[in-house]
Amino acid sequence: MKPAASVLLLTTSTGFGFGLLAWLGAYSALGLLPGHARILVVVGVATALLFASFGLGASMFHLERKERAWRAFSQWRSSWLSREGVAAVLTYPVAIAFAAVFWRDGQVIWTRLLGVAALVASLGTVYCTAMIYASLKPIRQWHNRHTAPDYLLYAVSPAPYCSRHSIPWISAHRERRQVWLPPRRRALR
């Protein structure tokens, strides 16, 4: 079995992008993102959407007739490929709203709710991608019940590593910035 390069790019890039978005949503939903980490969320969401867009763009090269790509959206009742396209398109505005509200307000109830929405939307998109592979009967290595859970695990695996190394950097940057603030003056009694 030798999958096309576009399939490998689709799998790795969209998996990482939507997995990163899922972790950011989960961190926000659980209140684990500090309110001062606004830049982390915005850069994280932008990175996630960039990787997802790159992977989805690579999947276009896998199509024989690229002018028919728009038809993929019309078959959502019967095609996992169409469901993936619809789910991906619905994930983008949720992710952008999540980043915008977090940038404006920090960690508030709306960012937690949008974090849950980003988590669900991104994992839904990854699940649809996994089911594309699981529904391919000629490829017995993929046509089994382990494909979807394995792909979901694959998608969410690299993001904690990236966030583990970026969150301390954001916190350290904030602490350095506070060093330059003038000390508070005591009130005269």
From TrEMBL:
One of its GO terms (molecular function) is dimethyl sulfoxide reductase activity. One of its GO terms (biological process) is anaerobic electron transport chain. GO terms for cellular component: dimethyl sulfoxide reductase complex; plasma membrane. Keywords: Membrane, Transmembrane, Transmembrane helix. The chain crosses the membrane at residues 7-27, 39-63, 84-103, 109-136. This is DMSO reductase anchor subunit (DmsC). It comes from mine drainage metagenome.
